[in-house]
Amino acid sequence: MYHYVYVIQHTKTKQIYIGRTDNLRRRLREHNTGQQKATLRKEGKWIVIYCEVYRSKEDADRRERKIKQHGSNIRWLKDRIKNSLL
């Protein structure tokens, strides 16, 4: 089984959300159908902008925490994927 650390962006608000899952398709569907409270929006949809794949759940968890907890990591990631952002 693989574990994904992903970045999604909302097409209307341009908001970015960072998460981790073992099923990226299911998780994206949950974000877009209002099943995830943090990403509930009336209009627009969430699209995958960036994804990292790990074989270890622990490695994926650690990477997600590292990105979310350190502002410099978020800035570095945004700079790295700047041409992919909406």
The percent range for strand residues is 25-35%
**What is the makeup of the main sheet?**
3 strands, antiparallel
Q: Strand-and-helix sequence, N→C?
A: EEHEHH
Strand pairing plus helix content: what structural class?
alpha+beta
- Name the poorly predicted regions: none
What is the number of helical segments per DSSP (H or I, 4+ residues)?
3
Radius of gyration: 13 Å
Overall 3D form: globular
Report how far apart the termini are.
30 Å
Q: How are the strands of the biggest sheet laid out side by side? A: 2-1-3
Query: What is the mean pLDDT?
Result: 94
DSSP strand tally: 3
Give helix % range: 25-40%
Molecular structure report:
It is globular and about 35 Å long. It has helices at 24-32, 57-69, 71-80; strands spanning 3-10, 16-21, 46-54. It starts with a strand and ends in a 6-residue tail after the last helix. The chain has three helices and three strands; from the N terminus they run E-E-H-E-H-H. The longest helix is centred in the last third of the chain and has 13 residues, at 57-69.
